[in-house]
Structures are given as structure tokens and as C-alpha cells.
């Protein structure tokens, strides 16, 4: 039963010691400790938030880069396509022009040829006419008795003419 | 570094447990002494009571007693201070007589005069242990505090990293969920309470240690402080719940109000008894186990005493491990319940879980 009766002296010391302990510890230990803990937790939270923000920004940046790259690629393709088209067009044009020029030259050559041939034909005609006239004149000049000598004469004349 | 600390921690536990053997030896000596003195039978009840009760002077082992100051106050004689060692040699000193661990004014014939009230403010074994634990708490937590200043922006080190999880446990697992957003005001008290009980429980487990948290005066002070904090910070919901419970028929009020009022006092009373009984019971069990050795010796001679010792050592080792658990558990429970009582006193929506409760489940 003695055990259950609080001792006045111990009660007194306990109140004094616990009270002092509470005041000293809360002022010099618990408050700084809990503040430091809170501060550190806030710091960690801040760092985590920062990391998350950076991650999002990085992702955005990467997406931007990707977009930029895609755009650049598209532009390059467009430029290349344009250049190819231009080149094709230029080639086609020059080919066309060359063909045209060639055709024109050929046509001109043909025309010239035609003219020359006509001139030649005309010349030949004139010479044939002259020759015929010559032959006829000679035949007429030389009265030939026989048919045989006539033919010989013609042959020789023709041979003469061919030499021309 | 951390590994080293952990190793030293476990090593100290092992060392502590090994000292139990020396406690054993110490009691052996005690019994031998008794036997030599008057061949009287070993009284296990007296031995246990001697160990769990307070004493003037701190007896670490038989014959090795640290004398402590005796401080007495009487209305007529005023203040008297002298060493407790004077009572070791003679029963009467300086007009005072010690009887069954209590000091009375000595009468004319040397008998105790119980008519004169003597206020005993002595630094007894428990008070010395209390002061020791206070110094220990201050040293430990000032060092932890310094750790936070020194390692600012760095990882915690040493004692700081050892105790930080415990401080965080009290804050995050005890104070925050039970008190709510206003926990900050009560946290210093809860931390002091937790570590005071824990340190004293552990000190009480040391061989020769005082049974401080198993003393009713100590647990009563703690419970009364909790009672005062709870009732002084109780808001209008708390008082309304006591005297005007919602949803209770008027006819039941004459029963309900006394029940609630008894409940207000029962809460700290249960805190007081729980800690006191748990710690005292633990000490009694260990001391009873050790006492079995001497009972065996009385029954069957010295050989029997030595014979049962190994088994008893194993049992008391086991009990000490359980006591180690209880030391933490009781500190936790006292703090947890205190924070729950504080939480229920400052809660804002008190009607939510009482009175109109029957409409609750149907409404949901």
C-alpha cells in the first residue's frame, strides 16, 4: 500500500525538475530542432519541386528541339525538292531548246539542201538542155548515113557528157 | 561512421545484459550476508520491496551505498540538511529517527514521534535518478541541437541521426495525426514527456537503477500535467460534449454527465496507473526470478542455488529484453494517449463522431 501513496518530497522534486526540463528543452532543444527539421523538409521539398519543374522544362525543350528539327528537315526537303524541280525544269527547257535548235538547224539544212538540189537540178537541166542542144546540133550538122553510125555517135556523145 | 555507431549501440546493449549476471552475483552476496547475520530466512517480498521503493541513499550493491542529502522541514525546527549515511550507523540522528524508510522526529525516549509532521524533501535515490536523467536529457538533446546547427544543410550525424527518427516518430506518428494542425503548440511537451519516460524507463533497467517511472509520484505528476493541458486547452466543443451532449435524450443526462465527468478524471488516472503498474510489475518479475535462486538455496542448500542459476539467468535475460520493449512501449503509449486526449479537447467538429452517429451510416 505504501507503494501507492505519492511521496511529497519526490512529488516536489518531480514538479520542479520536469518543469525546468520542459522549459529548458523546449526553448533550447525542441524549438531549434523542430525548426531545423522543418527547414530541411522544406528544402528537400523545394529541391524536389525544382527537379520536377526542370524535368518538365527539359521535356518541353526537347519537344521544342524535336519540332525545330522536324521543321528544319521539312524545310530542307522542300528546298531540295525545289532545287530538283528547278534543275529538272532547266534541263527539260534546255533539252527542248536544244531539240528546237537542232530541228531548226536540220530544217534549215534541209531547206538549203533543197535549194541547192533545185539549183543543181536546174543546172543539170540546163546542162542537159545545152548538151542535148549540142548533140542535136552536131547530129544535125553531121548527116549520118546509117543508123549504126548514128547510134555510135550518140553513144560517144553520151560518154562525153557523162565525163562531165 | 554510422556502422560504427550501430555497433557501439548493440555492444552497449550486450554489455548491459551481461551486467545482469553481476546483479545476480550481487544478490548472492546479499543473501550470504543475511545468512551470516542471523541465519534468518531469505524474504523475497522484502527484497523486492526494498528494490522498487525509494530510499535515502543509493545502494548499488550490498555494502556499496552512495549517501545522499537528507533535507527535512518541520514547522518548529525549520530546515535540516544532513547526509543519509548517518542513518546507516544508528537509527537516530540529529533528533530524527528513520523507521521503515520514513523519517520522524525522535521523541524523548528515542521512539518515533508521529504527531509532528516532518516534510521530507530529501534527495532520495529516486530524486537523484531524476536529476541524473534530467542532466542526461539536457546533455543528449543539447548535443542533438548542436548537431542541427553544425550540420546545417548537411546529412545528420552521430547522436543526431540516431535520435532524429525518434523525434520525427513523435512528431509524425503521435502528435500530427492525433492532435491535428495545431500540434506545434503541444509538440515540445510531448517530446519532453516521451523522452523523459523513455530515458527513465531505460535507466530503471540498469542494475542498481532506481525504479523512477514505477513510482506513483512521478506518474502522477506526468498525468496531472497532461490533465491540466487537456482541460486548459479544451475548446467549447469539448465542454459542450461534457455537459450538453448532442443527440442524448434529456432523461439520460443525469447519468451521462456524471459519466463524462468521471471520464475526464479517469483518463489521467489510467495514464498514471498504467505507467506505474507496467514498470513496477516488470521490476517485480525480474526481482522475483532472481529471488528464486535464494529461495532454492534456502530450500536445498548452496548447490541448489547455483544449480537453478543458469535457468534463472536465461529467464531474467528474456524478461529484461521484454522490459526493454516495454520501456519503449510505455513511453509511446503515454505520449500517444496524451496527444489523443489533447486532440479530442481541441478538435473542431466534435459532433461528427458522437450523438448523431446513427444517422451517419444511413446518410452515406
Automatic annotation (TrEMBL), chain A:
One of its GO terms (molecular function) is proton-transporting ATPase activity, rotational mechanism. One of its GO terms (cellular component) is plasma membrane. It is a single-pass membrane protein. The keyword Membrane applies. InterPro entries: ATP_synth_B-like_membr_sf (IPR028987), ATP_synth_b/b'su_bac/chlpt (IPR002146), ATP_synth_F0_bsu_bac (IPR005864), ATP_synthase_B_chain (IPR050059). The keyword Glycoprotein does not apply. The chain crosses the membrane at residues 12-30. Its main location: membrane. It is found in: Cell membrane; Endomembrane system. Keywords: ATP synthesis, Cell membrane, CF(0), Coiled coil, Hydrogen ion transport, Hydrolase, Ion transport, Membrane, Transmembrane, Transmembrane helix, Transport. Residues 34-78 form a coiled coil. Component of the F(0) channel, it forms part of the peripheral stalk, linking F(1) to F(0). The b'-subunit is a diverged and duplicated form of b found in plants and photosynthetic bacteria. F(1)F(0) ATP synthase produces ATP from ADP in the presence of a proton or sodium gradient. F-type ATPases consist of two structural domains, F(1) containing the extramembraneous catalytic core and F(0) containing the membrane proton channel, linked together by a central stalk and a peripheral stalk. During catalysis, ATP synthesis in the catalytic domain of F(1) is coupled via a rotary mechanism of the central stalk subunits to proton translocation. Belongs to the ATPase B chain family. F-type ATPases have 2 components, F(1) - the catalytic core - and F(0) - the membrane proton channel. F(1) has five subunits: alpha(3), beta(3), gamma(1), delta(1), epsilon(1). F(0) has three main subunits: a(1), b(2) and c(10-14). The alpha and beta chains form an alternating ring which encloses part of the gamma chain. F(1) is attached to F(0) by a central stalk formed by the gamma and epsilon chains, while a peripheral stalk is formed by the delta and b chains. F-type ATPases have 2 components, F(1) - the catalytic core - and F(0) - the membrane proton channel. F(1) has five subunits: alpha(3), beta(3), gamma(1), delta(1), epsilon(1). F(0) has four main subunits: a(1), b(2) and c(10-14). The alpha and beta chains form an alternating ring which encloses part of the gamma chain. F(1) is attached to F(0) by a central stalk formed by the gamma and epsilon chains, while a peripheral stalk is formed by the delta and b chains. This is ATP synthase subunit b. It comes from Larkinella knui.
From TrEMBL, chain B:
It is a multi-pass membrane protein. GO terms for cellular component: plasma membrane; proton-transporting ATP synthase complex. The chain crosses the membrane at residues 127-144, 186-206, 212-234, 272-296, 308-333. Keywords: ATP synthesis, Cell membrane, CF(0), Hydrogen ion transport, Hydrolase, Ion transport, Membrane, Signal, Transmembrane, Transmembrane helix, Transport. GO terms for molecular function: hydrolase activity; proton-transporting ATP synthase activity, rotational mechanism. Residues 1-27 form the signal peptide. It comes from the Bacteria. The keyword Hydrolase applies. It is found in: Cell membrane; Membrane. Belongs to the ATPase A chain family. Key component of the proton channel; it plays a direct role in the translocation of protons across the membrane. HAMAP family: ATP_synth_a_bact. This is ATP synthase subunit a. The lineage of its organism: Bacteria, Pseudomonadati, Bacteroidota, Cytophagia, Cytophagales. The gene is atpB.
Amino acid at each position: 500500500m505504501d507503494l501507492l501513496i505519492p511521496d511529497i518530497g519526490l512529488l516536489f522534486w518531480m514538479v520542479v525538475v520536469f518543469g525546468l526540463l520542459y522549459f529548458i528543452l523546449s526553448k533550447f532543444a525542441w524549438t531549434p530542432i523542430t525548426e531545423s527539421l522543418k527547414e530541411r523538409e522544406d528544402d528537400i521539398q523545394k529541391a524536389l519541386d525544382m527537379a520536377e519543374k526542370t524535368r518538365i522544362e527539359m521535356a518541353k525543350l526537347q519537344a521544342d528541339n524535336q519540332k525545330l528539327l522536324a521543321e528544319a528537315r521539312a524545310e530542307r526537303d522542300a528546298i531540295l525538292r525545289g532545287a530538283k524541280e528547278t534543275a529538272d525544269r532547266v534541263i527539260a527547257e534546255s533539252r527542248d531548246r536544244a531539240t528546237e535548235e537542232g530541228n531548226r538547224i536540220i530544217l534549215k539544212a534541209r531547206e538549203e539542201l533543197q535549194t541547192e538540189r533545185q539549183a543543181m537540178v536546174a543546172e543539170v537541166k540546163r546542162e542537159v538542155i545545152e548538151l542535148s542542144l549540142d548533140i542535136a546540133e552536131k547530129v544535125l550538122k553531121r548527116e549520118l548515113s546509117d543508123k549504126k553510125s548514128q547510134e555510135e555517135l550518140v553513144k560517144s556523145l553520151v560518154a562525153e557528157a557523162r565525163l562531165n | 561512421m554510422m556502422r560504427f555507431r550501430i555497433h557501439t549501440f548493440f555492444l552497449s546493449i550486450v554489455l548491459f545484459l551481461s551486467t545482469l549476471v553481476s546483479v545476480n552475483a550481487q544478490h548472492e552476496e546479499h543473501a550470504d550476508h543475511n545468512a551470516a547475520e542471523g541465519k534468518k530466512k531469505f524474504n523475497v517480498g522484502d527484497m523486492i520491496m526494498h528494490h522498487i521503493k525509494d530510499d535515502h541513499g543509493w545502494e548499488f550493491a550490498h555494502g556499496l551505498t552512495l549517501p545522499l542529502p537528507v533535507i527535512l522541514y518541520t514547522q518548529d525546527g525549520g530546515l535540516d540538511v544532513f547526509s543519509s549515511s548517518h542513518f546507516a550507523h544508528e537509527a537516530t540522528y540529529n533528533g530524527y529517527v528513520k523507521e521503515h524508510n520514513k523519517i520522524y522526529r525522535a521523541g524523548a525516549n528515542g521512539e518515533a514521534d508521529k504527531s509532528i509532521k516532518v516534510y521530507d524533501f530529501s534527495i532520495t535515490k529516486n530524486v537523484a535518478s531524476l536529476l541524473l536523467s534530467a542532466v542526461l536529457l539536457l546533455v543528449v538533446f543539447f548535443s542533438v541541437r548542436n548537431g542541427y546547427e553544425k550540420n546545417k544543410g548537411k546529412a545528420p550525424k552521430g547522436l543526431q541521426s540516431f535520435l532524429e527518427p525518434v523525434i520525427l516518430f513523435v512528431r509524425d506518428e503521435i502528435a500530427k495525426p492525433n492532435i491535428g494542425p495545431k500540434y506545434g503548440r503541444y509538440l515540445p511537451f510531448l517530446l519532453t514527456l516521451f523522452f523523459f519516460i523513455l530515458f527513465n524507463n531505460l535507466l530503471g533497467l540498469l542494475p542498481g537503477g532506481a525504479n523512477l517511472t514505477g513510482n506513483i509520484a512521478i506518474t502522477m505528476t506526468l498525468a496531472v500535467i497532461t490533465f491540466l493541458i487537456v482541460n486548459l486547452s479544451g475548446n467549447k466543443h469539448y465542454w459542450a460534449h461534457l455537459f450538453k451532449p448532442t443527440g442524448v435524450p434529456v432523461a439520460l443526462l443525469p447519468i451521462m454527465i456524471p459519466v463524462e465527468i468521471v471520464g475526464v478524471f479517469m483518463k489521467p488516472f489510467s495514464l498514471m496507473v498504467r505507467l506505474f503498474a507496467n514498470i513496477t510489475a516488470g521490476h517485480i518479475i525480474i526481482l522475483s526470478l532472481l529471488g528464486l535462486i535464494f529461495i532454492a538455496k534456502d530450500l536445498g542448500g548452496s548447490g541448489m542455488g547455483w544449480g537453478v542459476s543458469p535457468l534463472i539467468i536465461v529467464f531474467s535475460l528474456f524478461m529484461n529484453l521484454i522490459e526493454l520493449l516495454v520501456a519503449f512501449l510505455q513511453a509511446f503509449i503515454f505520449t500517444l494517449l496524451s496527444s489523443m486526449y489533447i486532440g479530442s479537447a481541441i478538435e473542431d467538429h466534435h459532433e461528427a463522431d458522437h450523438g448523431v452517429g446513427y444517422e451517419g451510416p444511413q446518410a452515406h
